[in-house]
Design brief:
217 residues, mainly alpha, 9 helices, 0% strand, globular
């Protein structure tokens, strides 16, 4: 979809983007949780090391790829850049107000502010693209043999990733409200379910594995 479109098409576009954002946010939260629980549940994870190692790396891989799509300037659809262009051409639809006296949430000036906000994050976004293009989507010889060099050339912290996710989430959510009053609260209630799994494995280890090990000595 490009150029002028209907209000319904805008709603479909926003919904699709928000589902993508919820997906990447949930995966990132799960990745962070597994990372955090390594401090006190590493032995439990080592009951199924392949599962947790592969899950951990797969989650991060997908976060980098998906987040890069959301900020890709050349994307034909689904990026914040593409959406802002479409929104600018269909600004008349973003006229929702809770109260007639309220100011419009979205104007051409506001769209320019969002674009400027992206420009302010250019260094981090370029680092994100380096991770995607040189490691996760393709193999670059320089980083294939020395992954630590990637951290030197394109530092990307967990806070950087969270900031990029939150910026695109807040931006698209504002346009959703401005379109027809629909607000999104993209928090996955099931992300922390991994704690239940780790606690079950922990109890199993203490009550079964350790007892078996003790009786066979």
């Amino acid at each position: 979809m490009s150029g002028h479109c209907s209000k319904e098409e805008l709603r479909q576009y926003i919904d699709r983007m928000m589902h993508e954002i919820i997906n990447v946010k949930s995966k990132y939260q799960l990745w962070c949780r597994i990372q955090e629980r390594r401090k006190d549940r590493l032995e439990a994870m080592n009951i199924a090391p392949s599962f947790f190692t592969l899950t951990f790396h797969s989650l991060f891989n997908d976060v980098i790829i998906t987040l890069a799509k959301l900020y890709d300037r050349k994307a034909q659809a689904g990026s914040i850049h593409k959406f802002l262009n479409i929104a600018s051409q269909n600004i008349q639809f973003f006229d929702y107000k809770d109260d007639p006296s309220d100011k419009l949430l979205v104007t051409q000036e506001k769209i320019e502010e969002y674009r400027a906000g992206i420009e302010d994050k250019n260094k981090i976004i370029n680092h994100l693209f380096t991770w995607r293009d040189k490691v996760f989507a393709h193999n670059d010889k320089k980083y294939f043999f020395d992954r630590n060099q990637l951290l030197v050339d394109a530092e990307l912290t967990t806070q950087n990733i969270n900031d990029l996710i939150e910026y695109v989430r807040e931006t698209i959510n504002t346009f959703s409200i401005a379109l027809d009053g629909k607000a999104w609260y993209p928090e996955s209630s099931n992300v922390m379910d991994v704690d239940k799994v780790l606690d079950i494995l922990h109890d199993y280890q203490k009550n079964v594995i350790d007892k078996i090990s003790f009786t066979t000595r």
